[in-house]
Specification:
The protein has 494 residues and is mainly α. The protein is built from 20 helices and no strands. It is globular, with a radius of gyration of 22 Å.
Length: 494
């Protein structure tokens, strides 16, 4: 059954890609606001959101969706309605092939374009790995196909669809798969609310489940005290989730090149409110649906086994796969399997397309970007991502962290320049200085301060107490913003 559904999924994306032949590989104009908005939301929502952050909610409770939902919806709306038209206006004048080219030409700074292109190419493979691990584990779990074969086959599928249809294929497939994600999310939400949450003793089991967690467990050390409560103010957990879910992810979505590209493709300036409304549907549904489902799973596992779902699944990253197979009928589980495939595909195709166009158009600088370079670079990046995925041995724990790093470092580096575009500022030297300050601060924080990555990358973690749990975007954004404001003030006073 699951293999048949996967084959139907493959046929669907191939047909859409085939029908997109002959379109511009780098960028396309799109008249359909619904398709563009759904593509925006689907690109933003990947296996990272479903598995990574869904698992985080199953581990920590309602504090995760409550903290994440409002900032996400607010920033999507504000970014699309206010920043989007400015990007569109700039591109009407510049006619760039990529957002990175657009930002460089707007600020009249080839260096800014090169810096953004370099850090994008450096970071995106980690995000690709996060997506591939998530979808590879699902394919293996639901079909029995070997993990390496699963991620290799999925990567080839993504490459083939982009090869045939370019950006047009990306957008059209996103729209189709976005409908699948919406349908799957609604199914999960209905079953969660009307079946799982109506089970006898639901709230009592959910509350009691916390007692099965050992007192010396990390979750208690972070300052959490229950699935239905918020962590203690200014505790490690409070700083971790507020800086991650209020700053890193929402701010990152304002600056990510693959999302900004959608704004360049709008048919006119009046389209953006409509794009925003459609763009909010999928992220909002996924946050509410899969996080609520993961939290509710604790009531079931406690009532049957006396433990939390994280304990039953063997870790946070295993919560969603475990619960989809355990908490739903085989038919529903199969439908949700396709939903995960769709979420992974819509993100990975945008990332692969972004990487290939960035290398061909913004790094290998020629008068006319070469499709051969684009195809070759995509093959190289896919090979690198596959090697990294296999090297990590399918460790799903990296999913949410890889996502946060990509969003956070790009956000800290680029937010002042993006906001500067909104206010009509265009000094390239200021933008470059701000970028370097934000990027270097964030990277140093990752390497030597942040509790998750510093031990992995350098083995050195400078102990600054609870502030070791602050996401890298916060110090990076403070520095980049101060530099940008200071230089613009100096220019005005001079």
């Amino acid at each position: 059954m699951n293999i048949l559904l996967m084959l139907l999924f493959v046929v669907a994306v191939v047909v859409v890609a085939y029908r997109s032949q002959g379109q511009n590989y780098f960028i396309s104009k799109l008249d359909n606001n619904a398709s563009l908005g759904i593509s925006y939301g689907a690109t933003l929502t990947s296996t990272s959101a479903i598995i990574g952050f869904g698992g985080l909610a199953g581990w920590l409770g309602f504090a995760i969706p409550f903290t994440m939902l409002i900032p996400m919806m607010l920033f999507i709306y504000l970014a699309t309605v206010y920043i989007g038209p400015k990007v569109w206006q700039a591109n009407q004048r510049i006619q760039a092939n990529t957002y990175i080219e657009l930002i460089g030409k707007y600020y009249n700074s080839p260096l800014l374009s090169k810096l953004l292109a370099t850090i994008t190419v450096a970071l995106i493979p980690f995000y690709c790995v996060a997506v591939l691990i998530g979808v590879g584990k699902f394919i293996t779990e639901f079909t029995g196909i070997d993990f390496t074969l699963a991620v290799a086959g999925f990567s080839i599928l993504v490459f083939g669809t982009i090869f045939y249809g370019g950006m047009s294929s990306v957008i059209k497939n996103d729209a189709v798969q976005g409908v699948v994600i919406i349908a799957g999310s609604i199914i999960v939400l209905c079953i969660t609310v009307f079946v799982h949450m109506q089970a006898p003793g639901y709230w009592e089991h959910l509350t009691s489940a916390w007692t099965s967690i050992p007192q010396d467990n990390l979750v208690n050390k972070l300052g959490f005290s229950g699935f239905t409560s918020y962590p203690n103010f200014w505790s490690r957990g409070w700083l971790m989730i507020t800086t991650l879910l209020i700053f890193s992810i929402p701010i990152g979505l304002i600056t990510l090149p693959q999302l900004q590209t959608r704004w360049m493709m709008a048919k006119d300036e009046s389209s953006f409110k409509s794009i925003a409304r459609y763009g909010m549907i999928i992220p909002g549904l996924v946050i509410v649906t899969f996080m609520l489902a993961a939290i509710s799973a604790n009531a079931y596992t406690y009532s049957t086994e006396g433990i939390t779902v994280a304990q039953a699944a063997g870790g946070t990253a295993g919560i969603i796969p475990y619960w989809i197979k355990t908490g739903f009928s085989p038919w529903v589980s199969s439908a949700l399997f396709v939903t995960v495939l769709a979420a992974a595909f819509t993100t990975l195709n945008s990332l692969m397309h972004l990487l290939s166009t960035t290398i061909a158009n913004d790094i290998v600088h020629t008068n006319k970007p070469s499709l051969k370079v684009a195809y070759g670079s995509m093959i190289a990046v896919i090979a690198l991502a596959l090697w990294m995925t296999i090297a990590f041995n399918g460790q799903m724990a990296i999913i949410s962290r890889a996502t946060a790093l990509y969003f956070g470092i790009i956000g800290a580096s680029m937010l002042p320049s993006v906001i500067g575009m909104y206010y009509g500022l265009s000094n390239g030297k200021h933008a470059v200085a701000s970028f370097i300050g934000g990027a270097s601060t964030s990277i140093l924080w990752v390497l030597f301060v942040h509790f998750k990555e510093s031990k992995l990358f350098t083995g050195i973690t400078y102990d600054i107490g609870v502030y070791n749990f602050v996401e890298p975007i916060v110090p990076g954004l403070i520095i980049s913003t101060l530099i940008y404001i200071f230089l613009n003030k100096m220019q005005k006073s001079g």
